[in-house]
Amino acid sequence: MRVAITGSSGMIGTALADSLRADGHQVVRLVRRALASADEVRWDPRAADAAVDPKALAGIDACVNLAGAGVGDRRWTAEYKAEIRSSRIPGTRALAGVLARLDPRPATLVSASAIGWYGDTGQRQVDETAPSGGTFLAGVVRDWEAAAEPAAAAGIRVVHPRSGLVLSSRGGLLHRLLPVARLGALPTFGSGAQVMSWISLPDEIGAIRFLLDRGDLAGPVNLTAPDPVTNSAFTAALDAAVGRPNLPWLRAPAPALRLAVGEGVTELLTSARVIPKRLTEAGYPFRYPTLTKALSAELSGRR
Q1: β partners of residue 259
Q2: Integer angstrom CA distances of residue 199 from 50, 132, 135, 288
Q3: What is the rounded CA–CA span in Å between residue 228 and residue 291?
Q4: Residue 73: helix, strand or coil by DSSP?
Q5: How far apart (Å, rounded) are the C-alpha atoms in residues 107 and 203?
Q6: How far apart are CA 36 and CA 27, in angstroms?
Q7: Count of domains forming the chain
Q8: Residue 136: its pLDDT value, please?
Q9: CB 59 within 8 A of CB 102
Q10: Residue 26 and which of 4, 80, 190, 287 are 20 to 30 A apart at CA?
Q11: For 204, how many CA atoms within 13 A lie in the half-sphere containing its CB?
């Protein structure tokens, strides 16, 4: 299989490219910088036509679109909120248009999405049938998914993996929390009752590959483990994984977090109990269905 990947230098993109190559598949990496290797193709996600040479994508069987500025990478100023939107929506629309014009067209576009679609759902359990929420991120995700419509209209199977918090010591939320946990100073955030829907990096990659192979799946598919946990439980599990005692009294109040981090603290305070209904029903075999197993494997280097 020949697979084109945007966002291939990120945590998920790098792991996906490595996984595909390890199984003998050919990877074409779409990059914004000057080309550095034979497997790279230059593109510009801000250009209306993606500024990509269609000949460079000739013969691809599928495309995985992972491009987008990190939601938790910087404080959410007005400028960075605009960057979160503009790094996803125009590029997805342009890429979908390019794929729709290829001859032959690829069979599949796996275009990244997120559980931000659901907004804050409190303790209520939600699956792929739940409506979009009313938060800033929910609006971004809603428009992000809609931007892939040109590909779907051209007959390309479009799948939107709505990823939860991807746990990896190499990036994302876990990477940021680990140093604090190892010092024995990891607090519970806010009330601690907010639900965190997570997925291990190996299962994130495994699920994306599952979606590439399953021609009967299209539309939104939640990429979350079947074991969402409260923030209090997450903190206790991470403390245990690094061999530190849990300190339930150590808390970072929500007002203080919002003052220190700004609106971007939503990643820590939003409650979303998201279940992987479609993935489970399709028979995806989770390698790490529980948080304890996922943390143990990640911190021991077993992936």
Answers
A1: none
A2: 31, 21, 22, 8
A3: 8
A4: coil
A5: 23
A6: 14
A7: 1
A8: 93
A9: no
A10: 287
A11: 25
Cα dihedral: 168, 172, 174, 178 (round 10) = 110
CATH number of the domain bearing residue 122: 3.40.50.720
89 Cβ contact list (under 8 Å, min separation 6): 140, 143, 144, 147
How much is the pLDDT for 303? 57
User: What are the structure tokens assigned to 89, written together?
Assistant: 């929506």
ω into 104 cis (within 30 of 0)? yes
CA distance 60 to 74: 34
156 near 176, Cβ under 8 Å? no
Report how far residue 180's alpha carbon sits from residue 186's, in angstroms, rounded to the nearest whole number.
5
Ranges of residues in the chain whose predicted pLDDT is under 70: 302-303
Q: What is the rounded distance in angstroms from the CA atom of residue 246 to the CA atom of residue 6? A: 40
> Tokens 């709505």 map to which residue?
162
pLDDT, position 190: 94
Pairing status of strand 157-163 against strand 165-167: unpaired
Output phi, psi for 274, to 5 deg: -105, 130
pLDDT value at position 141?
A: 97
User: Would residue 192 be called left, alpha or beta, if left means φ above 0 and alpha means ψ between -120 and 50 degrees?
Assistant: left
Q: At what angle do helices 136-146 and 78-86 cross, to 10 degrees?
A: 20
Domain of 102, in residue numbers: 2-300
